[in-house]
Structure formats: C-alpha cells, structure tokens
Amino acid sequence: MAGRAGGVLEECDGMADPAEGTHGILEPGVARAHFELTRRAPDPALRDHVDRHWIVSWDLGERSFTQVILPHPCVNLASEPGLIAVYGIPTSRAPHEISGSGVVVGTKFHPGGFAGFIDGPASALNDRKVPLPELFGDAGISLELELASCAGDADRHIAAVESFLAERLPPPDPRYEIVRAVTRDMLHGAPGTTVAALAERHAVSARTLQRLFREYVGVGPKWVLKRYRMHEAAERIASGEAADHAALAADLGYFDQSHFIRDFSDQIGVSPGEYARACAAAREGVVA
C-alpha cells in the first residue's frame, strides 16, 4: 500500500548530540512506535551547507498516524510519496500524516545553507513547498524526474541530490559564515543569550544580524533563539529528565516560570505539565 506523508518528518537537532536526539519531534516516544528515522552524513564537500541526509520509513498496515513537528530553522529538499519539493521553514507547528507504508528521503540544510543555491531571500520560501522546476528551471525538472525514478531508493536519491548540489556549490561567502557562526553559538551558548549579545560577540550590529538572518535563514535571530530553547525544553520533558518545570525554566534562561509556560504553550500547543503527562504515558507504553 502506498504511503502518504504530509510534509517533512525529520526535525532532529538541538543542544544535545543531533545524531542521537529527537529535538523537534513532539512526543518522541509515540513517534518511535510509528516510523523509523535514519540519518547519513553528507559528502565532505557539501558539509558547509548540508547538515545531513535522512530517511523516514514506516509500515502501518491499514492505519494512519499524524506526527507533529516543531520545525527547525532549516530548509529541506525531500521526496515523499506524491511530492518532490523544497520545503521552506514552517513558522508554526507542522502536523505530518503518514498512512499505509512508505519512505521519505530528504536533505536537511544548515540554517541559511540553502540560500546560496537560489536567487532571492530565503524568507520567500517560508511556509511553502516549492517544486524543483520553480527554483531551478530545466535542471529542476531533470532532478525531479531522477528523484521520482528512485522510488524510495535512498542511495540513488542521495547520490543524485549530492551531484546536483555539488555542481551548484556557492563560493565562500563571509556573510553566510557569520550566520553559521551565530547559529552554532545559539545552539551551544549560555541560557538567556540575547540577539544583542550575539551581535556584539560576532562584531556586527543587531540590525545587520536581523537582515542576514532574514536573507539567509528566512526567519529572524530572535525566532531562532526561542525555537532552539523550546526544542531543548520539550526534549528534556519528553525524556523525563526535567520534572521540576520551574528549575527547567531557570536553566533555560527564563526570568520566571509563567513566561516559560506561556512560550511553551504557544509553541508546543499544550502546557509543560500536559506535555509531561503525555510523554510519560508513552514511555510506559500507554499511548493515549
């Protein structure tokens, strides 16, 4: 039976080891029961722009399942049943439905890493699934046909995408390097880090940083900071590590617990307490 996926499922990254974490996948204990995620490192020549390749596969029989993702500030190029496209950053929670059986193969770019392959600002891709021909013309048509012929063959798919990107690899760009350095700082910096502090550390103005992020990443640096912080909060709660939500809020740099609860509820869709109970039920093998 053909599968169906409502978007890009691979959204794992964060302050912990991104090769092992589930940052961005909400209620990961439930997710593990419904699909398998594997990752592959990109060719070394592409590592400045490509974070990883990823494969999501599932076999649900006659059932369907909807996975909710809290997206990363990253563009993906993915081939799923019925759609091959470049996925811009979804600016809110993104539900993805899968059914039957299927495979999605994708390439996840670093924040800002896709901008050098296209004309125009990355923000033009936000909340869009853009067909390859719209971005790359005749070359996009050729790549689309080639990926369609792969039919879930991850090795062929990845080889085709890497060849396509290698032929179009942007030249070194000092402005993109600033974006890369700042996003790395965001992931590994001290709790409560601000955009102003990041701008000062990297010898640019806050206004310049805003402009660079809009052009290269597609969203502003404050958005990225808040999203990474919320990924970390959701990951710790899901693992059972953070039972004391007041302490978690302080550890993540919040001045008070109420502000943390408000941000968490806005981005995750439920309160920290509700999310903790749902994840605990999944860890115990009780899926509501």
Keywords for this entry:
288 residues; alpha+beta; seven-stranded antiparallel sheet; 10 helices; flat
How would you sum up this structure, described in words?
- With 288 residues, this protein is α+β, with helices and mostly antiparallel strands.
- It has helices at 28-32, 132-150, 154-167, 174-188, 195-201, 206-217, 221-239, 245-251, 257-268, 272-283, and strands spanning 4-5, 36-40, 50-69, 76-80, 83-87, 94-109, 129-131.
- Strands 1, 2, 3, 4, 5, 6 and 7 form a 7-stranded antiparallel sheet that branches.
- Helix 2 (132-150) packs antiparallel against helix 3, helix 4 crosses helix 6 and helix 7 packs across helix 9.
- The relative contact order is 0.14.
- Mean pLDDT is 90; it is low at 12-20.
**DSSP, total strands:** 7
Strand content: 15-25%
What is the CA-atom radius of gyration, in angstroms? Answer: 19 Å
Percent of residues in helices: 40-55%
Task: Name the overall outline.
Answer: flat
